[in-house]
TrEMBL record:
Its EC number is 1.14.-.-. InterPro entries: ABM_dom, Dimeric_a/b-barrel, Jasmonate_Hydroxylase-like. The keyword Disulfide bond does not apply. Residues 23-95 form the ABM domain. This is Antibiotic biosynthesis monooxygenase. The keyword Oxidoreductase applies. One of its GO terms (molecular function) is monooxygenase activity. Keywords: Monooxygenase, Oxidoreductase.
Length: 130
């Protein structure tokens, strides 16, 4: 099995923050095929496209060494999620994914009822005594 590495944006590695519920998440879990021609370009295009949807809150990605990919997308309301689900370019990419890029996938959509987060405070570096 090949290991597909992804290069996403150069943004700092931090999870999407907690929002005031309710809001929605779409969890897309994939195992990809060997044939990945055009995948990276399409993925980058879709990441740009989803940002234009009013109510889009962000996205987290993870990839296991074994090849399981997980993308969690966050949306303020069901209308935003529906707009993304029915977007023409997104639908075309879904068809191509089933035809070429994915060995298998699952999609879970859920309404978030509780949300919280934690970030470790940065401790300022003290000058070295000397």
């Amino acid at each position: 099995m090949s290991h597909h590495s992804e290069v996403y944006s150069e943004a700092p590695v931090v999870p999407v923050g907690a929002y005031e519920p309710p809001y929605y998440v779409a969890v897309f879990t994939t195992v990809r095929t060997q044939g990945q021609s055009g995948y990276s370009e399409t993925n980058a295009r879709l990441e740009d496209l989803v940002k234009d949807i009013p109510g889009y809150l962000g996205m987290d990605h993870a990839q296991t060494p074994g090849g399981l990919g997980i993308t969690v997308s966050y949306f303020r309301d069901a209308d935003a999620l529906t707009q993304w689900r029915t977007d023409a370019e997104h639908r075309a990419a879904q068809q191509r994914g089933r035809a070429e890029w994915y060995q298998s996938y699952t999609l879970h959509v859920a309404k978030v009822e509780r949300s919280n987060g934690f970030t470790r405070a940065q401790v300022p570096q003290s000058p070295t005594a000397g």
